[in-house]
Amino acid sequence: MLPFDTLIPIDKSSGLPAYQQVTHLIIKHIRNGVIKPGLLLPGTREMAGILKLHRKTIIAAYDELTAQGWTSVIPRKGFIVSEDLPEIKPKQWDKDTTGYAFNSKMPGPFYPINKMGLLTPAPDTKQPNLIVDDGHPDSRLAPMVQLHREYRSRLKQQHVVKQVSVTLSAGTPKLREAMVTYMAQTRGLQMQTENILITHGAQMSIYLAASLLLKSGDYVIVGEPGYYVANQVFEHMGARIIRVPVDKHGIDITAVEDACQKYPVKALYVIPHHHHPTTVTLSPERRMRLLEMAEQFNFSIIEDDYDYDFHYTSSPYLPLAAGNHHNRVVYIGSFSKALSATIRIGFMIAATDFLRQAIYLRRIIDLRGDHVMEESLAALLSNGDISRHLKKVNKIYCERRDYLCTLLDTHLKDVVHYTKPDGGMAIWLVFDKRYPLSEISVKAAKYGLFINNGKLFDSPDVHYNALRFGFASLNFEEIKEVVEIITKTVN
Amino acid sequence: MLPFDTLIPIDKSSGLPAYQQVTHLIIKHIRNGVIKPGLLLPGTREMAGILKLHRKTIIAAYDELTAQGWTSVIPRKGFIVSEDLPEIKPKQWDKDTTGYAFNSKMPGPFYPINKMGLLTPAPDTKQPNLIVDDGHPDSRLAPMVQLHREYRSRLKQQHVVKQVSVTLSAGTPKLREAMVTYMAQTRGLQMQTENILITHGAQMSIYLAASLLLKSGDYVIVGEPGYYVANQVFEHMGARIIRVPVDKHGIDITAVEDACQKYPVKALYVIPHHHHPTTVTLSPERRMRLLEMAEQFNFSIIEDDYDYDFHYTSSPYLPLAAGNHHNRVVYIGSFSKALSATIRIGFMIAATDFLRQAIYLRRIIDLRGDHVMEESLAALLSNGDISRHLKKVNKIYCERRDYLCTLLDTHLKDVVHYTKPDGGMAIWLVFDKRYPLSEISVKAAKYGLFINNGKLFDSPDVHYNALRFGFASLNFEEIKEVVEIITKTVN
After folding, report:
1. Which residues of A touch B95 (CB under 8 A)?
2. How far, CA to CA in Å, does A491 sit from each of A413, A434, B153?
3. Among B169, B368, B456, B468, which is least packed, fewest CB within 10 Å?
4. In B76-115, which ranges are continuous DSSP H helix?
5. Which of A99, A266, A366 is the closest to B201 by Cβ?
6. Are B378 and B174 in contact, with CB atoms under 8 Å apart?
């Protein structure tokens, strides 16, 4: 007889009922060929003795196996393993997907990931101790304790939790109401709750806007260099991307006008505060001109104002969406920068009709967000915690920016060049061609530092050898350590 | 002179710097026409006196206004409001979206929402006290305190929080590893971390699978009646939907075969446990046959096994994805049912190549999930909290189901008919045609009860006058109250 006691070990601390464990293990052994077709299983009483289980448990397991077709009942003999098993080997998933007939050609670069799902700048990267991100906030400073206190208190309120079942995908009403006030106070935006959609991060708002505005073959204008993930969205829609230079005042509006005269442009994607990646701010004059051109050439503007809340030396400029927008602007922002990259709450502001379509699309993509978290955020917006936090971190981030600049000027003067940004969380750091970032990132990995390989922002024609150095999430000590490691890699 | 002290009230408790408040308010009044072009603003010293602010604050505000083009400096006179203002009226967002040239015709029904973003079964609905959802768990029973304890402890670990910046969108490695074990133990699925993608709810997995498998004009088979949000996804892809009857053993496989012989079917969407909405379980024989047909007719299977963890009288059947799947199955599930509808963590399991494309697409849709929450869930999976919780709630939900059935048999015998489901969180409750749910839902709303109007599951040709009565999220008292209200509405 097979050693059933070792083949079928029961884990009493597991949450799974014992009869299910028996069932699953027997199926597993049948599949693996350990228990063969035609085998007569021990009687229920005998098996109960072997496995030290109640006989009823074994009866339940055998019944289950029979119901699923793995065993058959032979009257007066017992249960035998079926001869005509539907499947006799364990089914692994292959690497090749011969089975699916699917669209396997996703546009855009596909970054290599290792087994752990991590982006790999180089094959020998260890799990890094230090990470240079491309502009994340320092969540150690964020009012996460307050946020989670609000969250916990709401978990006990059944009507809040149950609201998800009747609320559509626009976001929780309390957060949308709090946003009306907050957007008016901070950005001069005049709107109603009907104009706001809460999304799972700002990225989802970009995806929704692009889905609604662009179809295959349509023209869209973006800044170059630009935010590659937005470009990938436009490519996914099949849009034709017109790349327009970005100078120190933002996107080049003469080039935009030229493009509009040549092509029937459907949309323009613009990052007015701290253009991604170069961190420049779009000047007020250009903002006005873009709004006029949108009307003149009949295109829509996707305004991705992810960095509005972070300014160190001057006030931010009001959004295009606060200006003469002619219902042509889709305004996008996020709370991930104010709090933590893990808090995935973004928003879209647009005219009602457009927004209703976006709500429909958001719903079929992911139904809705975490409404309890949304209501918790609403509380922090209303009680001023978010504004106070922003005031505090603007001061700290400004100091970190200055500290990083000092270190760069001292240790990497001949290696990098940059323009100190007015705000935001990153410096656009261009490395001299003698120091390829592809090599630096590999060397840095050996010191436990992750920095990207400088290829993220490359367009088909240009290699920048540059990265966004996110200084906001690193304290002085960490900034110092990072610069020291980079200095080692270039010497 | 204008009453600047009342026009420009400064809120010292606000987080916004005073100079920004002054700037924004002056811009607001210029826009509203209160402060006219050509007006000479009070000198900085005078304005500081009026507003009881430091003179430096006023200088900063005036400089900012000038930088933004709202005022100009007249040497030796001061600051005047610019004559050539780019915009002079406040821009509201219109209802009509004349500005956007967008695809305004979303497919499928668009449910009316009221100003609060709530689905309105009737215009006079108050915010409901009681809600009958379509099968949500009772989050009051879920280990949310444990989950949030894990969350808080991770917030302090910078490397966990920072991991988001290097981790791609597949989900946190710890959760994917925990899933490999959990899926093998509970579902007999044999796979690696490379086969798992964590998504923002199961809905996102459906959207991703449909995006990859279907293009405009492709045929997809679904059960009828069926899960309307999945159907809306397929419609959005431009797919042609073939509706196949669902009987008490699940989707009708003869009808599936007929359809495959007539049309080049690309995909089949199946809900094996507790078909949505009718709650029937797909029999093991039909599972085998579907897998064979997928190979024979060259289609892929989207297996939406949202209800696998909830069985009251028997063990669940193993998924199609655990069988002879020929790399043709995309297996989809969620933790929203195990924990709370607010926890939006779903997953997709498929062959590696397919999954990598899904990861790419997920990334451009919403970058990633909340990795801290994902790691917290991983901890609860690994320490057995989830399994123990499921064991506990299966007992409680079973009792709630039985209690509801008793009440229905007692009070609504002639009004509704239903088949008691083996598991899951809802009963498919068909109302007699004499009692239209459209009327019942309106009446119920007056008693503070939200139930849907029975139209959600209608196909173009069929009106079911039925709803999914989610019993799991209601305790005995609440179930009793709901049945009492429904009873009142039909008498």
Report:
1. 351-353
2. 13, 12, 40
3. B456
4. none
5. A366
6. yes
| B176-to-A69, A81, B169, B343, B377 alpha-carbon distances in Å | 31, 34, 12, 17, 10
Domains A4-81 and A144-383 share a fold: no
Whether residue A402 contacts residue A354, with contact meaning beta carbons closer than 8 Å, is answered with: no
Which parts of chain B sit beneath pLDDT 70? 14-15, 85-91, 93-127, 158-168
Task: Please write the tens of the pLDDT for every residue from A329-387.
Answer: 999 999 999 988 888 999 999 998 888 889 989 999 998 888 889 999 999 999 999 99
- Report whether A209 contacts A202 (CB < 8 A): no
- At B292 the three-state DSSP class reads helix
User: What sign does the dihedral A142-A145-A151-A154 (CA atoms) show?
Assistant: negative
Q: What is the pLDDT of residue A314?
A: 76
pLDDT, one tens digit per residue, over A41-56 is 999 999 999 999 999 9
Number of Cβ within a 10 Å radius of residue B410: 10
Instruction: Considering the domain delimited by B144-383, tell me its CATH architecture.
Output: 3-Layer(aba) Sandwich (3.40)
Nearest of B160, B154, B159, B168 to residue A449 by alpha carbon: B159
CA angle B28-B31-B32, nearest 5°?
85
The alpha-carbon radius of gyration of chain B (Å, integer) is: 29
Cβ(A455)–Cβ(A438) under 8 Å? Answer: yes
CATH fold of the domain at B4-81? Arc Repressor Mutant, subunit A (1.10.10)
Look at residue B40 and give its three-state secondary structure.
strand
ipTM of the complex: 0.82
CA distances in angstroms from B205 to A146, A396, B274, B355, listed in the order given: 32, 40, 19, 10
What lies within 8 Å, CB to CB, of A157 at 6+ separation is: none
Are A199 and B366 in contact (CB < 8 Å)? Answer: yes
Helices assigned H by DSSP within A128-172? 144-155, 158-162
* A91-128 per-position pLDDT tens digit: 676 666 556 666 545 543 344 444 444 444 433 445 67
Query: What burial class does residue B454 get, using C-beta atoms within 10 Å of its C-beta: 0-12 exposed, 13-18 middle, 19+ buried?
Result: buried
Q: Where are the domains of chain A?
A: 4-81, 130-136+388-489, 144-383
| Arithmetic mean of pLDDT, A134-147 | 86
Give the Cα separation of A302 and A299 in Å (integer).
10
Task: Compute the residue count for chain A.
Answer: 491
Q: Which of B102, B170, B201 is facing A367, going by the closest CB pair? A: B201
Contacts of A165 in chain B (CB under 8 A): 131, 133-134, 136, 341, 470
How many Cβ atoms are within 10 Å of B59's Cβ, its own excluded? 16
Q: Does domain A130-136+388-489 match CATH 3.90.1150.10?
A: yes
**DSSP letters spanning A342-367:** T---EEEE--HHHHHHHHHHHHHHHS
Handedness of CA A66, A69, A71, A76 (dihedral sign): positive
Give the separation between CA B338 and CA B119, rounded to whole angstroms.
Answer: 25
What does the pLDDT look like over A387-406, one tens digit per residue? 999 999 999 999 999 999 99
Helix (H) or strand (E) holding A71: strand A71-74
Nearest to A208, CA basis, from A313, A83, A363, A49: A363
